[in-house]
Amino acid sequence: MSTDISYTPEEVAKILKISKFTVYELIKRGELAAYRIGRKVRVEGADLELYKQKSKSLNSLALPQEPSIINEQLSHSHHFDRDESLVICGQDIVLDILTRHLEKQFPQIHFLRRYIGSIDGLMALYRGLANVVTAHLWDSDSNEYNTPYVRRLLPGHQACVINLVYRMEGFYIAKGNPKNIATWKDLVKSDVRFVNRERGSGARVLLDEQLRINGINRNDVLGYEEEEMTHLAVASKVARGEADVGLGIEKVAMQFVNLDFIPLHKERYDLVIRLEDLERPHFQALISILKSPAFRNEVMGIGGYDISQMGEVIVEI
């Protein structure tokens, strides 16, 4: 890659194999340097190369590859100051609302958001790189969400699983469903182009489990290797006609006028916290916020979520 040319955000997205929405988020957060020519955004080749080198440094610390807003101290240490920082992992907008409520109560605490998938979040919790992570990982053997994965990925560590919301997972399809997509087996139709989520995300786990159960070879799914990092990016690709179907949550589908949604699976979206942290003041505040009318009403106002068990302890492991 030449360092003396500039790239558009779309070209950067193709080079890094991420969505253009993630590129704009990186620029917005100052993690990737960019400049404007009129209304156009450009990224210098040298700045893109610098970002890639910084990402490699993070990866050497076993951090997941999805861009984060964890401050620079994490690039120099495996651990952060747990009395001054609290890292919350997950991608749902409900977590942004939760973080805002926490910031009001604890202005002295740095609440840092990391936008990564469920498995990467649990691994970050195991390695001491996160305090609160979310998971929506379905286990087909037990028909249970999250608990089997927490047991496997946090060996020797006690954890508490607390419900945040329930969400409906399903297919994003074009308005009117022109390809007549209804079930998992329709993904192998020769004229159906699929767009996938990244490895480690809850949606990817659900897909792979369903392919296995239905006896579907992933190599027969056109577009299986095409990955996007968020539900929003998947839905956008279907809405633009670049794919015929993708898997994600119903809430995101509501944001697109030219998409239909086929509900397939009601999923439990939980918070996972180390049991030893549960009695600390800001964790107790987190649970209180989940049960507060103000927070619950704000989430209800967004729509697309079932909050009937919000704040309830599902299991202590």
Automatic annotation (TrEMBL):
One of its GO terms (molecular function) is DNA binding. Residues 7-54 form the Helix-turn-helix domain. This is DNA-binding protein, excisionase family. The keyword DNA-binding applies. Residues 100-291 form the PBP domain. Gene3D superfamilies: Periplasmic binding protein-like II (3.40.190.10). InterPro entries: HTH_17 (IPR041657), PBP_domain (IPR024370), SinI_DNA-bd (IPR010093). It holds the Pfam family HTH_17. PANTHER family: BLL2305 PROTEIN. Transmembrane segments: none annotated. The keyword DNA-binding applies. Keywords: DNA-binding.
